[in-house]
Design brief:
single chain; 380 residues; alpha/beta; Rossmann fold; 2 domains; 7-stranded parallel β-sheet; 6-stranded parallel β-sheet; 13 strands; 17% strand
């Protein structure tokens, strides 16, 4: 029986892992899959050795502060797989955590695959060449990543973006509002402040203040938010009540909330691509600890942080980072979307182009390539 080990981090990695496990089991129902998993991966069927919520840290300063705990977690996972010796080990995203495990396991003769390219093309480009010695295969979500890593000698497959497969090409905002129990006659702005506790702490009040500024300019606008967990939903609801903003909060409905909305204020991350595939006009914001931001600003080599802008090579969606992330200018950017139908139609056309390019059956392609690596190890 083939044994595949998978380690994912955070909500986005759990979603990718869940789709991957489903695709693997369609091909090999009797696979043994062990994993550091979240709810999506658990539901797909795996033996859980750790939870993705154990790895919920963002920012250089925060990682340093939590390093002893993260190191213990990393060693526990490495020890497990060094003993269990799966046919292939798959790390999903979180490169600074999982690539150390991949490299060490690979040195012991265990095949290693990394799913979601590390953003060394954006910073620390000199580290790209070292990947070829540490993994057998890199699975990328975007074609420009495959080209970059192949130039550095890394065996790479562009699989497409799994979220592009799950979100329909055509938008149906009215139908989505009905499915969510929202008023189909009203206009909505979505608030997506992030999934990590640190992100919620930094973004929720900022996003609510921005919503209030939008409401002052356009009193007929309603607001809906998505939270990853029930705990996060309670936190967002409590903060909204404290500032007097009427806000509908959904849990685990990010795609539907985006598709139901006329515009969205989102924290930079995977949700920006969800917004692109949903064809929802976005305003992107992000705040880090000041020292983390100062360090990363000196290291990052690309002009944007939001992936839709990197794909477009231009500012498809406005970005507000650190000190620039203020309620009034972010509200103005949202209002610009809400008041300009022609601008929205041009945006939807660009989103559709990217959606079609990235809709390739990613989970199935990834599963096929991972099984090929596993069978090579098994000697078939």
């Amino acid at each position: 029986m083939l044994h595949i080990g998978i380690v994912a981090g955070e909500s986005s990695g759990d979603q990718l892992g869940g789709a991957l496990i489903d695709a693997l089991r369609r091909r090999e129902p009797d696979l043994r899959i062990t994993a550091m998993a979240g709810p999506k991966m658990r539901a797909a069927g795996c033996e859980v050795i750790a939870g993705v919520d154990e790895l919920s840290v963002m920012g250089l300063v925060e990682v340093v502060r939590n390093y002893p705990r993260l190191r213990r977690l990393r060693e526990r996972i490495y020890d497990y797989y060094a003993t269990a010796r799966p046919d292939v080990f798959v790390g999903i995203d979180v490169p600074d955590f999982v690539m150390n495990i991949e490299a060490r396991l690979h040195r012991t003769g265990i095949k290693a695959v990394h799913y979601v390219a590390p953003q060394t093309w954006a910073w620390r480009q000199s580290r790209a060449a070292g990947l070829a010695d540490n993994i057998d295969l890199l699975l990328t979500l975007f074609p420009f990543e495959a080209k970059f890593f192949e130039q550095h000698g890394v065996t790479t497959t562009f699989v497409g973006h799994p979220v592009a497969d799950r979100i329909p090409l055509r938008r149906d905002a009215i139908g989505e509002r009905g499915r969510l129990g929202l008023d189909t006659e009203r206009r909505y702005v979505a608030l997506m402040p992030g999934s990590r506790r640190q992100e919620l702490n930094r973004h929720v009040d900022l996003f609510l203040a921005t919503a209030q500024a939008v409401r002052r300019a356009e009193p007929d606008i309603s607001f809906v938010a998505n939270a990853v967990t029930a705990e996060a939903a309670q936190f967002v609801s409590a903060r909204a009540a404290a500032c007097g903003l009427s806000l509908t909060v959904k849990t685990g409905e990010s795609h539907a909330v985006l598709r139901a909305s006329d515009a969205a204020l989102v924290a930079s991350g995977t949700v920006t691509m969800e917004g692109l595939f949903a064809k929802t006009p976005l305003v992107v914001a992000y705040k880090l600890a000041p020292l983390s931001f100062s360090i990363m600003k000196r290291m990052v080599k690309v002009p944007f942080i939001a992936m839709p802008n990197l794909l477009e090579g231009d500012e498809l969606v406005p970005e507000f980072l650190q000190g620039a992330a203020q309620p009034e200018p972010m509200a103005a950017a949202l209002l610009a979307w809400l008041r300009d139908d022609a601008k929205v139609r041009r945006y939807e056309d660009r989103c559709t182009k990217h959606h079609q390019l990235l809709r390739r059956g990613a989970a199935d392609v990834a599963a096929q390539r991972i099984l090929s690596v596993a069978r090579a190890e098994e000697g078939r």
